[in-house]
Amino acid sequence: MPDLALAGAVALGLLIYLVWALVRPEDF
Fold this sequence. Notes:
Elements: H1 2-23
């Protein structure tokens, strides 16, 4: 199921991005 894998990768990327934005707000 490549669509599910792609959706998972995007969700993981967004989660990392949001956590990074909370931890390192000066980078944004």
